[in-house]
Each structure stands twice: as C-alpha cells, then as structure tokens.
Design goal:
Radius of gyration: 14 Å
Strand content: 5-15%
Structural class: alpha+beta
Helix content: 40-55%
Strand order of the largest sheet: 2-1-3-4
Shape: globular
Length: 135
C-alpha cells in the first residue's frame, strides 16, 4: 500500500475548532462526502482531543489536526491532505496537496488562512450527527 492510500477501515479523527464557523463548515463539507464513514469530528476544545493529541493539543487552536492509528498526528495543510485522501472522489486532491510540487506553497497558505479564520465568524456551526447517523 502506498503512503497516500489509507488502510481500509482506518478511522481519521478530525480535531477542529468547534467555535469557528469556517472550521466547522469545512468539517461538515468533508462529512457530507465521507461515504465510507471513516471521519470522526472532535472539537479541539474537548477532553477527548486533549487526551489523544497530547503535546500537540496546544497547537490545535491554531490549525486543523487529524489522527489515525496508521499515520499518527498530522497538522495544517498536511492534515487537510490526509482528510481529502479519505474521501473517495477527493483522494486525487489530497495526493496533489501533499506532493512536493504543492506542499511548499500549501503550508504557508493554510497558515495564513488559519490566522484569519475569525473574519469568517466565530458562531458555532452544527455538524451532522454521529457517524452511524450519516450513513
């Protein structure tokens, strides 16, 4: 299996800012495309996020983090690429985003957007129900 191909059934915990409309909207977009039910959204503000992320939890307020058993913790643009790799029709975009050709530009672009995300509103944006309800 290539590094770009996630293991079958390997869940991806998605740690996002549960109080940010842009962050929650992006996660809701991904959940709507998660045909295999492998994404599990977890607000970074939760105790579950702090327990799973350990030392990385302090940085979770600044950028999206994801975690899987097979690949561990990824953050920022690398987390977005990993998330896209889990979505059947978006795997190509995840591989492209993680490629050497784009990663050098994607990482600072992501950080710039993340720093300005408050401009998109801080109101909570409800996500769909638990994974079983989304299938």
């Amino acid at each position: 299996m290539s590094p770009a191909t996630p293991a079958a059934g390997d869940r991806l915990l998605v740690f996002y800012d549960g109080e940010c409309r842009l962050c929650a909207g992006a996660v809701a977009w991904a959940l709507a495309r998660d045909r295999d039910g492998v994404l599990e959204p977890v607000p970074y503000q939760s105790e579950a996020a702090r327990a799973r992320l350990g030392a990385a939890a302090a940085r979770a307020a600044d950028e999206l983090h994801v975690w899987s058993e097979a690949r561990g913790v990824r953050a920022g643009a690398d987390a977005v690429a990993e998330l896209l790799r889990r979505l059947p029709r978006w795997r190509w975009a995840g591989a492209l985003l993680a490629s050497r050709a784009l990663a050098w530009a994607a990482r600072p672009a992501y950080r710039a957007l993340a720093r300005r995300r408050a401009r998109f509103g801080a109101a909570r944006c409800p996500l769909p129900g638990p994974p079983a309800a989304r299938r």
